[in-house]
Write a structure and sequence with these properties.
The protein is mainly alpha-helical. The chain has a domain of 54 residues: Arc Repressor Mutant, subunit A (Orthogonal Bundle). The chain is built from five helices and two strands. A two-stranded antiparallel ribbon has the order 1-2. The N and C termini lie far apart (70 Å).
Length: 150
């Protein structure tokens, strides 16, 4: 019994010795991340710091325009911009949709999480793209999987 306990104590001591440099590195990186948290600038990832939410500038709140103000705004619209076209998200070129379609054709029954992992993108994008392909008649959904339409 004593040999067993001595052996386990030695294993634990060896493992602690092995992990010590990693814990030290973690502590240094954590200190560096908190030091950089207050510095403004471009950051490639926001995983370790929390970004402060952006506030809208001064002016009217959304939806507070009266009908007269709306008419004035429409009259002041720049020429050349169609009246029905609103500013917002641009329509994509469809390259991701084409890529998703090729994966669906190559592996019928593929799910969105599997597809996102293969394409290296987030799932929420595909939840918008695949129903669009379904409306175009290129794919169909059966259960959780997506299949090409014949």
């Amino acid at each position: 019994m004593t040999d067993f306990l001595d052996e386990k104590r030695k294993e634990i001591t060896d493992r602690l010795t092995e992990l010590k440099p990693l814990v030290d590195e973690y502590t240094r990186l954590e200190a560096a991340a908190s030091a950089l948290a207050g510095v403004r600038g471009s950051s490639s990832t926001g995983a370790t710091t929390t970004a402060t939410p952006r506030r809208r500038g001064p002016g009217r709140p959304r939806g507070s325009r009266t009908s007269t103000a709306t008419k004035t705004a429409k009259a002041a619209r720049k020429p050349g911009r169609p009246a029905g076209r609103r500013a917002g998200r641009r329509k994509g070129s469809g390259t991701r949709a084409a890529e998703a379609l090729s994966f669906v054709q190559g592996q019928p029954g593929i799910t969105i999480p599997e597809l996102a992992a293969k394409m290296g993108i987030k799932q929420n994008y595909l939840y918008r793209v695949l129903p669009g392909l379904e409306q175009e008649g290129k794919v169909k959904k059966q259960g959780r999987g997506w299949h090409p339409k014949k």
